Amino acid sequence: QKEVEQNSGPLSVPEGAIASLNCTYSDRVSQSFFWYRQYSGKSPELIMSIYSNGDKEDGRFTAQLNKASQYVSLLIRDSQPSDSATYLCAVNADNDMRFGAGTRLTVKP
Amino acid sequence: EAGVAQSPRYKIIEKRQSVAFWCNPISGHATLYWYQQILGQGPKLLIQFQNNGVVDDSQLPKDRFSAERLKGVDSTLKIQPAKLEDSAVYLCASNWAGAADTQYFGPGTRLTVL
Q1: Given this model, what pLDDT does residue B1 score?
Q2: Which residues of chain B fall below pLDDT 70?
């Protein structure tokens, strides 16, 4: 069974802080990794994708991948109230996409 | 570029009734996905099409769910008969090149089964 695990939260951080979101996955042949943001009542939208070990930065967002530990994370720097949402980790292995249950993030002004 | 279109946006039915959802992907996207998202959970893939062929339907409850994409463009997902546990948001997504590529989601259809 291919599993993608995330802490459900809620994770609460003050405005301007760094939010750290974590995800582990069970399938060692996983090839591509995605972070989606989902506002309440809305559909998921892509934040970051990462395919190789290491860090990938895009503005205030950094995705980190460690395939040996089967771990992927998302850091949000200078968190804003508008970042308050559920963050979904998605993992693709052999054309089979699996989503975690999501971590709910609240950024307090 | 127009996004993924879905209809209806909301549907309320009674258990044992039938319901159908429609999805029109982004123009040119060969791959189309249907997901079920139950409140508080992540999306669960029901079926993946590549053009008009099924790539993966391993998690589709085939005794009651069916889907088709006859001309390789738009798609319909049907539930017959519906159960209470089918209450969820049904999301359609599409992309160019399969699960390794970014998926673009439609607004979803919120189904309530009473």
Answers
A1: 66
A2: 1, 99
Tell me which residue of B81, B58, B53 sits closest to A2, measured CA to CA.
B58
Which ranges of chain A have pLDDT less than 50?
none
Partnered with residue B54 across adjacent β-strands are B49
Rounded Cα distance, B59 and B54, in Å: 12
CB atoms within 10 A of CB B88: 20
Tell if the CB–CB gap between B33 and A4 is shorter than 8 Å: no
Q: Among residues B2, B3, B1, which one has the least CA distance to residue B91?
A: B3
A107 and A84 in contact (C-beta within 8 Å)?
yes
Q: Which residue from B minimizes the CA distance to A8? A: B40
Nearest residue in chain A measured CA to CA from B4: A43
| Residue numbers in B near A101 (CB within 8 A) | 40-42
Average pLDDT for chain B:
93
